[in-house]
Design goal:
Low-confidence stretches: 1-21, 50-55, 57-62
Helix content: 40-55%
Strand content: 5-15%
Radius of gyration: 21 Å
Bound molecules: glycine
Strand order of the largest sheet: 2-1-8
Number of helices: 15
Length: 414
């Protein structure tokens, strides 16, 4: 009995170590993404115009793409994208242009590059208006940031630098963080900083290194430090929102907005934290962030279900029936591919294998849309407490999925 148990144990170990590498063909999955990108472009090209819809005449179709309308989500029961107009309060508008830039990076297809440029240009206005909230980084760095990385277009650089200055206006030295949602001070009973805001620090770091105000670096570091101090519990799970006293800057409480409860681990919040602190380590090379992010990642990995795709909240009461959040898995996979490059030996390898396992699951029939719809992935959860975008295809899942695949491809090439 003992021998049999040992044998099965060894077999599981061998399988666990070797399956992911065999199971994931990165080029195949990037080809799949490219196919879906073309399907989406075709759908956008052939969308009935609003007037046609309003008039009930489905024969009247606009042949030109409206580049200000960005794919956002496809609900589980639907087959075509819900698009939203790029605007200061539509936080997801940068992901579709970012996907196009990644697809161009993989395919070198100039028609995709052209489309990426057109959609990206629709967001330029954000660099010229006062900051509405912290999402400027998602909006501009996923679009213009990737565009600049691949083209070195000086106009793109100016848009990023101007937007970084604009984002910095939300920083309050008294608190030491960026005010994430100025519109929600009353709702939370104080100044608020949300975990998602960590991602937007990347644009500040980049700007400080690329001709922008060096103070942007200090803002980003201050924000990361304050968030590290107040927005994590002793077990390294995170609060979605930290509430601070508007006048004194003192931390009041940690609460949730999109998670199950104030004391639960909201999957995407933890994912933003893993991604965010990996990036902060890259930008600062301060080992305290590398040490910290491993703890934040380890608790996430420890509590994952067998297929490595989290339920939308790790403490959702109806697990295993609770909806999954594929978007969190994509964000973490991308972060762990990067994190694995900063850590030598078996720990680094553990993160790489975990990322591969996530991407292998995401690339299975269970999670890919395949022919059923033009998005890459199914089963993300946007805002469960609001009952919006639950078990849906969501554009940011696709963005971090293609990013993770490209990062892994780069890693395996080097
Ligand atoms: N940044 C909002 C979200 O993660 O849903």
């Amino acid at each position: 009995m003992k021998v049999k148990g040992l044998w099965i144990g060894c077999l599981c170990l061998i399988t666990a170590c070797s399956t992911p590498d065999k199971g994931l063909d990165v080029n195949k999955e990037l080809d799949y993404c490219n196919t879906q990108v073309h399907r989406t472009l075709e759908e956008l090209q052939n969308r009935p115009s609003l007037t046609a819809e309003a008039s009930g005449n489905s024969q009247v179709r606009e042949q030109a793409i409206d580049y200000s309308m960005m794919p956002r989500c496809i609900m589980d029961s639907l087959k075509t994208w819900e698009c939203r107009k790029a605007s200061k309060d539509e936080w997801c508008s940068g992901f579709w242009p970012g996907i196009l830039w990644y697809d161009y990076e993989y395919t070198h297809d100039n028609t995709i590059k052209k489309q990426a440029g057109y959609f990206t240009a629709s967001l330029k206005f954000l660099s010229k208006i006062p900051a509405y909230d912290h999402d400027l980084g998602f909006l501009i760095f996923c679009s213009y940031g990737n565009g600049y990385r691949l083209t070195h277009n000086p106009e793109y650089k100016k848009v990023i630098l101007d937007t970084a200055d604009s984002l910095a206006t939300l920083f309050r030295p008294r608190v030491g963080t960026i005010l994430s949602w100025p519109r929600n001070i009353k709702m939370f009973g104080g100044y608020n900083t949300i975990m998602d805001n960590m991602i937007n620090l990347e644009m500040l770091f980049w700007a400080a290194r690329n001709g922008g105000n060096p103070y942007l670096f200090d803002i980003a570091v201050s924000h990361a430090d304050k968030t590290m101090k107040h927005q994590f519990r002793p077990d390294y799970t995170s609060y979605h929102v930290a509430v601070y006293d508007t006048l004194t800057g003192k931390f009041i409480k940690g609460v949730t907005h999109q998670g199950y409860s104030d004391s639960s681990m909201w999957a995407r919040g933890q994912a933003w934290a893993i991604y965010g602190y990996t990036m902060v380590y890259r930008e600062t090379k301060d080992p305290k962030y590398l040490d910290f992010v491993q703890k934040v990642a380890d608790i996430y990995l420890k509590r994952l279900p067998a297929d490595y795709i989290p339920y939308w909240d790790f403490d959702a009461p109806d697990i295993p029936k609770a909806p999954r959040d594929a978007s969190a898995a994509c964000i973490v996979a991308s972060a762990l591919v990067e994190l694995s490059t900063y850590i030598a030996g078996s720990k680094g390898e553990k993160y790489k294998q975990a990322a591969i396992k996530m991407l292998t699951s995401l690339s299975s029939d269970k999670y890919q849309c395949g022919k059923s719809k033009p998005a890459f992935l199914l089963h993300s959860t946007g805002h469960w407490p609001n009952k919006s975008e639950v078990n849906a295809s969501i554009i940011y899942a696709d963005y971090y999925y293609i990013e993770a695949l490209i990062r892994l491809k780069r890693l395996e090439k080097n």
